[in-house]
Design a protein that fits this description.
Structural class: alpha+beta
Shape: globular
Number of helices: 20
Largest sheet: 6 strands, antiparallel
Distance between the termini: 60 Å
Helix content: 55-70%
Number of strands: 13
Length: 445
């Protein structure tokens, strides 16, 4: 597959076939169990085939389908181990790869975006892509001034495919949700739909990347490439020489690498809003590149892809967010409930006991209450199972909470980031980082 399918009917048919295929495999599995085969073996086979079909389809279609798959991949750590095994390889594959489009199509897109004289500035362009993702792919090139550059080109029809896929995925949310137990598909799709226009606008992406590049220019740990040129569906930035991403550290990194890059990931997450007024809102591991030192020891962290950012009111994360996290960590149930009501997380008509709310939130803020916190799949699975278990008191609290619009993208980003940290199994000084960068968290003098 080399191009985005242009006909909506073709893409819709492939997406619609996903739950049908799952239902068929379940029926076949039921027959095998009646025939005496071990139920656990049969279910493992069903999950393996489902994972392969689901994520191969999402990756091949690119557009909104792959964007959805990448967004799901950061929540892999939350799923129970007995369910996630067959899915893990396919999920993490989506964090770093996608099939390419033809070179001629790339050249046509560059002409449309940068003008017919683009070869005067871009004096060399690699024939094949170095990376390919949901709505575009990246080629290595050389600018007229001698700089190596990354040339990001949007797939023809990416906007049409992105919107069409997300509409179809929204309609199929309930049935696709049964294929991946535990992930709430519908709000994830809705969030992707809300930021579609921003994702497609390379001018807006360049504006955000320039802000981050300026803010982190002299940072010893974080690298953000400068923007060189932008136009239409083409974006040219400085080249970042990195052969691997956080996905490789998740797969086989040492403890030292996991802790080091996990800490840099957290520092960027919080320092970005403090320095730029923007929140990088696409935390999947493929966007975070590994830049080891010359001796191979853990080095700097490069950060790519600024198509999804939250433009924060007031130019910073909400100070109420820091205050609420601090109150939960201090165990002040009454003050926590009052603050949640004031900020709109609990509506005036909702009646709930302060201690019940505190018991629900306390485990989530635990990383801010100790000097260093060890993230793990086991910890995230425990929290995920707790809030999704109808017999647990936390389940009813979750149903009564409201998420104010100003917090939608912030919530999704931080939840995804915790998923990445749990995949890494990183130990990080979370409390110190939050104290330095999150408004309202430090106790009033």
């Amino acid at each position: 597959m080399t191009e985005l399918p242009r006909k909506a009917v073709a893409r819709t048919a492939r997406l619609a076939a996903l739950p049908l295929g799952y239902a068929g495999r379940n029926a076949l599995g039921f027959g095998k169990r009646l025939g005496g085969r071990n139920a656990e073996v049969v279910m493992s086979e069903i999950q393996q085939r489902t994972a392969e079909q689901l994520f191969r389809t999402l990756g091949d279609l690119k557009g909104g389908a792959m964007k959805f798959g990448q967004a799901m991949s950061v929540f892999e750590a939350a799923l129970p181990e007995e369910l996630v095994g067959p899915y893990r390889a396919e999920l993490t594959r989506l964090q770093d790869s996608a099939p390419p489009m033809p070179t001629q199509t790339v050249r046509e897109q560059l002409t449309a975006g940068l003008g017919p004289g683009w070869k005067d500035d871009l004096v060399w362009l690699d024939g094949g892509p170095t990376a390919a993702a949901s709505i575009g792919q990246v080629h290595r090139g050389r600018w007229v001034d001698g700089r190596d550059v990354a040339v990001k080109v949007q797939y023809p029809g990416a906007g049409e495919a992105l919107r069409s896929d997300l509409r179809q995925l929204s309609r199929l949310a309930r049935s696709i949700g049964t294929m991946i137990p535990g992930i709430d598909v519908k709000p994830l799709v809705e969030e992707l739909q809300r930021r579609t226009n921003d994702e497609l606008d390379y001018e807006l992406e360049a504006q955000a990347q320039r802000a981050f590049a300026d803010a982190f220019r002299d940072d010893p740990d974080i690298v953000v490439p400068d923007v060189v040129a932008v136009g239409g569906d083409a974006l040219v930035t400085e080249w970042m020489d990195s052969s691997s991403s956080l996905a490789s550290i998740i797969a086989d990194g040492t403890k030292a690498e996991r802790d080091h890059y996990g800490e840099l990931f957290v520092r960027f997450l919080f320092a970005g809003p403090a320095r730029t007024g923007l929140l990088h809102a696409d935390p999947h591991p493929g966007n975070f590149r590994i830049l080891p030192n010359d001796d191979g020891s853990p080095g700097r962290l490069g950060v790519l892809d600024y198509g999804a950012v939250a433009r924060l009111p007031g130019g910073h994360l909400p100070s109420a967010m820091g205050s609420l996290i601090r109150k939960a960590g201090e165990g002040d149930a009454d003050a926590l409930l009052a603050g949640l009501r004031e900020e709109g997380f609990i509506l005036p008509s909702v009646r709930i006991e302060p201690q019940v709310v505190l018991d629900y939130l306390a485990p989530f803020v635990e990383p801010t209450t100790v000097e260093r916190f060890q993230f793990s799949r086991e910890w995230m699975q425990e929290q995920f199972q707790r809030v999704n278990n109808p017999r647990d008191p936390s389940y009813t609290v979750a149903l009564k909470l409201n998420l104010p619009p100003a917090y939608l993208l912030i919530h999704r980003t931080f939840l995804g980031s915790i998923g990445v940290l749990s995949q890494l199994g990183a130990e990080a000084p979370f409390r110190a980082i939050v104290t330095e960068h999150l408004p309202g968290f430090a106790a009033p003098a």
